[in-house]
Amino acid sequence: MTTYFVTGATGFIGSRLVRSLLTRPDCDTVYVLVREASRARLRSALEGVPAQDRVTEVIGDLTEPNLGISAARTKQLSGRIDHFIHSGASYDMTAGEQETHAANVLGTRYALDFATATGAGVFHHVSSIAVAGDHKGRFSEQDFDLGQRHTSPYHRTKFGAELAVREQTALDYRVYRPAAVVGDSATGEMDKADGPYYFLPIIAGMARLPQALPIIAPNLGATNVVPVDYVVNAMEHLIHQPADRGTVYHLVSPRPQQINEIYNAFARAAGAPQIYSTPKWISAAAAGLADAATGQLAKLGAGRGPIGVRLSDLVHGLTGVPLEVLPYMTLPTVFTSASTRRALADSGLKVPSFDSYAEVLYQFWAQKMDDYRARRSAKGRPLAGRKVVITGASSGIGRATALAVAAQDAVPLLVARRVEELETLRAEIEKQGGTAYIYPCDLTDGEAVQATTKQMLLEHDGIDMLVNNAGRSIRRSALLASDRMHDYERTMAINYFGPVRLVLALLPHMTERHFGHIVNVTTAGLQTRTPRFSAYLASKAALDMFAEVVGTETLSEGVTFTNIRMPLVRTDMIAPTGIYKRFPALSSEEAADLVIEALVKRPTEVNRFWPTVAATAYSMTPQPGRFVLNALYRLFPESKAALAEGDKQRAQTEMGVLATTIAKAFRGVYW
Q: Is residue 363 within a helix (H) or strand (E), and if so which, with residue range?
């Protein structure tokens, strides 16, 4: 039976290697070095793996002498380790010298000391092709120090780590030099986006262009990438093969991949245009210029001054590639692997062509790793799968919007106070083949809003959109409301503070996902300045301006707002105003169409023709505009609810021919 000690077991390669070792019938125990703070991460990495009882955690730290393991524990492990696999390291090329040196060089020395103290059988060191530095030309498994330079902390410390292994004399050892490791060639699984993955946001953006559009570009050089499953399977096989002390294995692609080749493979997966390379002499000249430019940028950006900091941010923002990484996107070195391939001959393991698995890499990235994946929608189905919160969903515009959203294959999250109406609406949506969730909530209750949004976020991976539709309208002149301050308080509570509470509760979630769209159903009265609606219009104006201001703050985070200046809609909200029975008005379904338009196209505002004409006229001639509004105020009667008991019958019947004509002529405008 065989025992192993593994460092870096929570890492991408290390965790997979532990899984692979556990499947071996001769595996007795796998000791894994793990920091106390990383124990949960280790368990997560090994979740679902059989034979986990063979894993024994050894609490320690790679950056501490003797790996932070006590003398007593070291003594217990003496003579029990057949294979010591050192895969722990810092692989972050943006990390500083001190951090990288501590993990890579000191960590390797401490691992060697511990392996020596316990009498480990063979020390297996996971190095990197980075040891080749800036070497130009061929670099074989037998090569190490050819006078090459190492211009980054990562390259220097990986060279220093391998040097430490080579210089010690106490242990038998093997060295494994993987190329740039990408995701699993079968599943695409990957843990972080670096290397070729830096191209993917650009390629995803270019997928919006016609795929047949040819792009002419120079070939800037080559790289070398291998899938993680090949690296792990090859290591698992080679660890158990007899070999001379100091044998080095190159876990690389036998043929370097051109940058344009990498791009085109990903572009095919994304549906983006292909690159057609320029003639070799143009590509060679362009590659030389690119190397010089990136080298100079790296030097300028390395300083601590404000100019350097800004340059780093600028390069990262424009290219998506950290400035520290940019000079190493291509390799001057060609890595040979003849010896490694001979050692793997009886295993059947071969490096698959990048083109054969680029699509699964892209799809995994697009679905799991892309920071901006929430922004993407299905082609031709912009709302499909979107989670849309709709307030005031139990009736009127909200109900019609919920049905329309569900018809677009989106998932409405229905919010209102009346539970029975929400249940009925959900049943109707489900009967039509859709899906809906209900969240009874009083939007004027701050604690209830917090509890509701918390529940939504627990039950759904992502909330994409919010329709602030719930509202309250009061038609009453200010003079008649002089003793009714509660009119203003109630309209502000539901029309302004309720939506603001929801927006503020969902905003961190939306900005974290870099996507969100919020539709506010406001009113065309903001454009027409309709008399008798001071309470209603003030509350809607506050919401309208709130959205405009916050929208400028969150635009770069992908969170946008639309204010729909909704015209008169025949709903329960206008029923108390009897004269509106004679006004032309939109149906709830027509209003819902405007909401769908706002969700799909995401404009800043949606306006109707006549209110826009009124707003334009008022801005050009404000004084005459005020006289006209006063005349209209006197022309149209108060609503029944606004008057004293003795005047109610008069209010119902006093709308004359002129008022009726104006109401019908300006469809959607309310007075």
A: helix 354-364
The closest of 211, 620, 566 to 401, measured between CA atoms, is 566
User: What domains, with CATH codes, occur in the chain?
Assistant: 1-178 (3.40.50.720), 374-665 (3.40.50.720)
Most confident of 270-279, 319-328, 492-501: 492-501
Neighbour-count burial for 442-474, b at 16+ CB within 10 Å, e otherwise:
bbbeeebbeebbeebeeeeebbbbbbbbbbbbb
How far is 59 from 660, CA to CA, in rounded Å? 84
Catalytic positions, written as ranges: 536
Cα–Cα distance measured from residue 280 to residue 287, given in angstroms and rounded to the nearest whole number: 10
Question: Which residues, at least 6 apart from 353, have a Cβ–Cβ distance to it below 8 Å?
Answer: none
| Nearest by Cα to 60 from 31, 21, 85 | 31
DSSP string, 30-93: EEEEE-GGGHHHHHHHTTT-TTGGGEEEEE--TTSGGGG--HHHHHHHTT--SEEEE------T
**H-helix or E-strand containing 375?**
none
Would the pLDDT of 299 be above 90? no
CA-CA distance, 524 to 531, in Å (whole number)?
Answer: 13
SS3 per-residue string spanning 404-469: HHHHCCCEEEEEECCHHHHHHHHHHHHHCCCCCEEEECCCCCHHHHHHHHHHHHHHCCCCCEEEEC
User: Bridge partners of 216?
Assistant: 276
Whole-number Cα distances in Å, 277 to 215, 272, 288: 8, 16, 16
| Most confident of the ranges 235-249, 313-327, 625-639 | 235-249
Identify residue 367 by its one-letter amino acid code: Q
Question: Computed from CA positions of residues 250, 252, 254, 259, in that sequence, does the dihedral angle turn out positive or negative?
Answer: negative
